[in-house]
Every structure is written in structure tokens, then in C-alpha cells.
Amino acid sequence: MTKKDKPTKKYIFLKILGALAAVVFILSAVSFPLRTVRYTLVSRKVTKKVRIVQISDLHSCSYGKNMKSLINAVDAAEPDIIVLTGDIFDNRTDNKNSDTLLKAIAKKYPCYYVSGNHEYWGNMWETFSRRAESFGVTVLQGENVDIDGIVICGASAKSDIGDSVKVCADNADTNSFNVLLAHFPEKIDFYRSFGKFDLVLSGHAHGGQWRLPPFMNGLYAPGQGLFPKYAGGRYDFDDTTFIVSRGLSRTIERIPRIFNNPELVVIDILPEGEDGE
């Protein structure tokens, strides 16, 4: 190699810099730190601010010893209500992490829980629902609960979900602010067809598993296929706000999350004329 052919210090530096950038990119893509995502809604139907925390698709994944990092995030959000939109338990695991979480949060906050598909698989729903109730969690399967003017409507993820949503809609008063908890986001047009729900909260899609913001919000979601329309985030319709949690699962799936952090969703519902924090 001639002196001219020898790599220069600048060339070596750029190669090292490029390699480091590639490592940082890869580590960023597959890292799983929990993030808190906040949304604000304003409605003439409420007379005071209400904060809802949505927990979805935990699949009994670990968040440190005694689930401390997730519990701390919930406490930091200072919820008035906690809603759990399915797949909190998982038919493939021992569910100790889910038990730990539910025991802790139900002691402090009113918690309302609807099923996801994984709670039904393996005929485990009766077991899981009884466990949740034993910790003080309210399980909803077609029932509505009024909490200070906010009505929480819970739809079952069972095959008869249509009947469950219809019962919720039939019992909903349009003068109240109605929140529908329904696991499957791909059914949003059906949920909206009743004209009763001001806010719909779903999960299930896991953020499309792989994301490339701002170009791709999700690669694949069950029930929606490739490039799902409702992978995660907020979607505003004329009559309904729709929020899909990207969920909290991070270790149980065969396909890792890429640029897709697990998330805790915090929703502030404000009366007209009031600013958020």
C-alpha cells in the first residue's frame, strides 16, 4: 500500500463515527423505555376536569421489581379513573406481573376493565375476571358506570362484541360524556354507528409493532393487516374522539417493537373554557 492509498485519519474517524451512529440507531430502534402519552379533550358535557389513565395490552410483561416503574408512572399521572382495555392478562404466562399491578392500582384508584382476545383464548376469561375482581377492579361486559358525569361503557371482546356494544349504547344518555372501552380498534366504524360515544378507547394493535415516524405509523396489526389505519394515537371524527393505545407489551411477542415504545396513556377531559395544566 502506498502512502497515497493509506486511510487518512479523517477517513478512519468518519468510519468510526458511522459505526457508532449505526449502533445508536439500532439500540434506539429496539429499546423499550416506557413513555407517557398525553391527550386533552374539551366537552360541554363535563363540569370539571377528569383525568383518565388507560392501561392496555400489558400481557403480564415485567416493569421492574414489583412492577415499580409502571406503578410509579401511573402514580405520577395522578388519575381520577383508570381504564384497562384488554390483554392485561395473557393465556401464555403465569400472570404474576398482572396480579401485582392490579393489586397496587386498585387500592388507590377506581379501575374499570374490559377483556381482550388473550383473556378469552384458552377459556381463561372466567379465571382472569374473577382474579381482577378479587383485587378490587370492576369488570365491565356490556355495563355502564357513571362516575361524576363521566359514563364508562365496557364492551366484551368475546365473539358477541356487537351485542355488548349495543347494550352499552342502548343504556347511554347522550347528555352525558360517554366513554366506550372496546379492545378492537378495527371496529371503530361500528362503535361510531350508534352515535352515543364521545370517546372510544382501544388497544390490540400494539402500535403496528414496527414504526418509522413520521413515515409509517405501524407495519402490521391483527385485524387490520399491513400498514394499519388505526395502529396507535388519536383520531378525531366529527362526533367521536378515538384513542388507540400502543400498549405495554414488550417482551412476550415473537416480533420485537421497533421505534415503538410501550406507552401509558393519560387523557384529560376538560369543560369548555378551562385550560389544561
Question: Which key phrases capture this entry?
Answer:
277 residues; alpha/beta; Purple Acid Phosphatase, chain A, domain 2; 6-stranded mixed β-sheet; 14 strands; 26% helix
Brief overview, please?
With 277 residues, the chain is of the alpha/beta class. It has helices spanning 9-30, 68-77, 96-106, 117-120, 125-134, 161-170, 188-192, and strands at 35-43, 50-55, 81-85, 111-114, 138-139, 144-147, 150-154, 177-181, 199-202, 220-221, 225-226, 233-236, 241-244, 263-271.
Shape field: globular
How many domain units? 1
Mean pLDDT: 87
User: Treating each run of at least 4 consecutive H or I residues as one helix, how many helices?
Assistant: 7
Content-based structural category: alpha/beta
CATH class placement: Alpha Beta
Distance between the termini: 66 Å
Q: What is the beta-strand fraction? A: 15-25%
CATH level-4 homologous superfamily = Metallo-dependent phosphatases
Task: Please summarize the sheet with the most strands.
Answer: 6 strands, mixed
Low-confidence stretches: none
Number of strands: 14
Side-by-side strand order of the widest sheet:
1-14-2-3-4-5
Order of helices and strands: HEEHEHEHHEEEHEHEEEEEE
> Radius of gyration over alpha carbons?
21 Å
| CATH fold name | Purple Acid Phosphatase, chain A, domain 2
CATH architecture: 4-Layer Sandwich
Structure write-up:
The termini are far apart. The chain is built from 7 helices and 14 strands. Helix content is about 25%, strand content about 25%. The chain has a single domain, classed as Purple Acid Phosphatase, chain A, domain 2 (4-Layer Sandwich), CATH 3.60.21.10. The chain is α/β, with parallel strands linked by helices. The mean pLDDT is about 85. The longest helix has 22 residues.
